[in-house]
Design goal:
globular, alpha+beta, 6-stranded mixed β-sheet, about 240 residues, BirA Bifunctional Protein, domain 2, single chain, 14 strands
Length: about 240
Amino acid sequence: SLIGRLMFELPEEMGLIAVAVRQTQGKGRGGNVWLSPVGCALSTLHISIPLHSNLGQRIPFIQHLVSLAVVESVRSIPGYEDIELRVKWPNDIYYSDLMKLGGVLVNSTLIETTFHVLIGFGFNVNNSNPTICINDLIAKFNKEEGTELKPLSADCLIARTVTVLERLIEIFQEKGPNGVLPQYYKYWVHSGKQVRLRDEEGPVAWIVGIDDYGYLQVHEEGKGVESVHPDGNSFDMLRNLIVPK
């Protein structure tokens, strides 16, 4: 992609973002195609992270910071704090725990002592189909609460997401995971949820949180807390399973 080629040719301190009005060649996790019709906020952002920094030592955390930044881009606007936008581990944006309306994809390349990170994020701002969009949630909230919150634009939310993300990265670099986790847990869908490990007959475990590297922690009875990695596991919220892929 153009941004993938450009990112090594720009000065280190210069940020780079590509915003797609619509996209047909997008790539998702596990070889999935990522389509972006008009009405979606979709962009790719390049950032550099020093290897010997808090985040450089915990690169998997970036996808969580981006998911949190997307949710915050809406919920940090005065009046919009209670719009039910949430994060789902490892890389989805959800309406409550009911429906996906966005996602995050991160690719990182280590060159000498710097990670060059390409962050793709997309979320549905204005399309009622095929799922639900942020402006539907705002309209629903207005109807239920008698408020008059205005619909939001994709451009505004992309800009806000990038601004919030920069701030989250700063906090993480300064304070490590504990600087951002309280906020992340405030918005995630998994608190106290029960899951089964491996298959539907598998042992029952409770979701505890995420560890210092961004992996999910589960507590299996009599076993203590263990971490589950996203690469080898697909996390199926609907069936509440953590299964090896």
